[in-house]
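Work Package 4 report. The design task specified in the project plan requires that, given a folded chain encoded as structure tokens, an amino acid be chosen for each position. We show below one input record used in the internal validation round.
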């Protein structure tokens, strides 16, 4: 006899309780017709994740309660079906100066019109992008329920990364563990999840079903890839990543150990996962917020070229517009390359010269600047003119501006406030420059979304990077070589290594100290940057909360 378990790996929307409930209802009906008797949805599926301070509003909690009742009512006629739905429960104690949390991050088992069990997450993460102790108190109980004679233990996400919750579930009689999850993507996270769940399965000698969320929510992306491991920790099946799926795991019940059967999505290279994370992050930010399309400044350089390719893969060519804004310092080959790339991808392409505006600014400031040499002031004026033009087009036509700055630039301040930082969504904000080049080459060799092979002209990839804001400028005039810079950033910013430790690894002290100083003094810029997609284990977003004013030196 086999129990068929369906993981409803769906793309939920934060705050859309009626819509999320309907998705769950539709998925449950489809799964039931195909023989499933247990349907598992991800963590906080009814309200979306992370709901942040919406969780502090009593009306939000009440709407979640209503959504649970809706799911139970609408599925009441499906005899024997059990559905696990994630939702917050409870209230709090408030005064003007104190708020004591009484909410729980819960998952309920719904069957034949009733809520049979409600389990509250015990382990609340409070690191990286997680901030759950702001909203929830830990649960204390266990949850084991029976479906077709099989005792199923329920855990929520972080619970399965610790020993006690799984052991308690087994002691209560669990023969199989089901874990609901909302675990944000970063490169390499998928393999880490499988390894940890395999450890957990071996530790308690029980199979583990891992139900995961998919979709983009502001800066975080959830990559799907739900999976199952048997009691020996062997991967028994895996859902595809970065897309919705009703993933079925069949659990064979016999005299011996439970046997799991499921389809197996293939392993993917890191660049493929990273590309799809960026594409999904753009698509969901644009679609869920109701923007009609996007526009960006196309410079003929590598960063804007990569963002354009991502945007077309995410939205299609008809919703993407590229604007080239040449200055007196723009090389002719930049114009040629920008035109060629726009033609390859089939997007609308326009050219608006900024030379008249630049000359007008210089004339207006001539008296103030008399006798002073040109410097970054004039460079920033050009960037800000471009920002004004893009934002004007955005205001007039409703499309959101995608900024094109990368993580290396954001770290060192190689970007202009109200200039190239002006926009609504920073696509490659968490992608180091060396990875920008790797992704460009990967995309030229692959066409994962069928929008056209080899979209980026080779010269864009091979030319020395330049902001083209003064004659014969290259990035390396102001920054260390990107291979060196990015290696230091990975150690200092992402892994919290100090200057001495980095120097001990063979890096030049003066370069390391300069990079560390640039990171410190440019915090004020990053505070004013658009939200961007998180793809590493530490981004300049919720992962990074440093004071602007401070004297500490690492």
């Amino acid at each position: 006899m086999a129990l068929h378990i369906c993981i409803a790996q769906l793309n939920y929307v934060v705050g859309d309780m009626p819509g999320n409930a309907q998705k769950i209802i539709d998925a449950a009906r489809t799964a039931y017709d195909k023989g499933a008797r247990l349907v598992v949805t991800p963590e906080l599926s009814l309200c979306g994740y992370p709901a942040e301070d919406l969780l502090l509003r009593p009306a939000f909690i009440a709407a979640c309660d209503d959504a649970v009742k809706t799911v139970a009512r609408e599925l009441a006629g499906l005899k024997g079906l059990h559905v696990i739905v994630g939702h917050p429960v409870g209230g709090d104690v408030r005064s003007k100066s104190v708020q004591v949390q009484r909410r729980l991050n819960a998952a309920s088992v719904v069957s034949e019109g009733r809520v049979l069990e409600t389990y509250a997450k015990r382990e609340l993460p409070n690191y990286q992008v997680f901030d759950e102790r702001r909203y929830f108190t830990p649960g204390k109980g266990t949850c084991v329920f029976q479906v077709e004679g099989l005792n199923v233990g329920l855990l929520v996400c972080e619970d399965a990364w610790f020993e006690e919750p799984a052991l308690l579930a087994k002691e209560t009689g669990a023969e199989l563990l089901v874990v609901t999850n909302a675990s944000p993507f970063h490169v390499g996270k998928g393999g880490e999840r499988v390894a940890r769940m395999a450890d957990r399965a071996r530790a308690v000698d029980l199979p583990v079903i891992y139900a995961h969320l998919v979709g983009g929510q502001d800066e975080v992306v959830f990559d799907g890839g739900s999976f199952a491991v048997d009691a020996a920790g062997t991967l028994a099946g895996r859902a595809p990543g970065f897309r919705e799926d009703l993933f079925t795991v069949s659990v064979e019940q016999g005299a011996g150990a439970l046997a799991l059967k499921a389809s197996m999505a293939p392993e993917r290279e890191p660049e493929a996962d990273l590309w799809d994370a960026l594409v999904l992050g753009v698509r969901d930010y644009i679609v869920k917020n109701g923007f009609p399309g996007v526009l960006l400044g196309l410079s003929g350089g590598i960063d804007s070229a990569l963002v354009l390719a991502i945007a077309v893969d995410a939205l299609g060519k008809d919703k993407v517009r590229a604007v080239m804004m040449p200055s007196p310092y723009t090389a002719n080959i930049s114009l040629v390359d920008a035109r060629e790339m726009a033609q390859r991808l089939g997007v609308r392409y326009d050219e608006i010269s900024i030379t008249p505006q630049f000359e007008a600014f210089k004339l207006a400031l001539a008296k103030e600047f008399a006798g002073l040499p040109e410097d970054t002031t004039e460079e920033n004026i050009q960037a800000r003119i471009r920002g004004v033009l893009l934002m004007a087009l955005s205001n007039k036509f409703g499309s959101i501006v995608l900024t094109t700055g990368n993580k290396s630039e954001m770290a060192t301040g190689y970007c202009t406030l109200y200039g190239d930082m002006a926009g609504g969504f920073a696509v490659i904000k968490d992608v180091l420059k060396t990875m920008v080049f790797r992704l460009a080459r990967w995309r030229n060799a692959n066409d994962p979304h069928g929008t056209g092979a080899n979209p980026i002209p080779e010269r864009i990839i091979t030319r020395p990077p330049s902001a083209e804001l003064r004659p014969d400028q290259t990035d390396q005039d102001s920054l260390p070589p990107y291979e060196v810079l990015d290696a230091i950033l990975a150690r200092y910013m992402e892994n919290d290594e100090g200057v001495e430790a980095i120097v001990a690894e063979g890096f030049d002290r003066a370069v390391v100290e300069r990079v560390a100083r640039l990171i410190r003094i440019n915090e004020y810029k990053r505070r004013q940057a658009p939200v961007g997609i998180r793809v590493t284990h530490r981004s300049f977003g919720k992962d990074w909360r440093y004071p602007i004013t401070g004297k500490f030196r690492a």
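The longest helix spans residues 376-397. Validation will be extended to a larger panel in the next phase.
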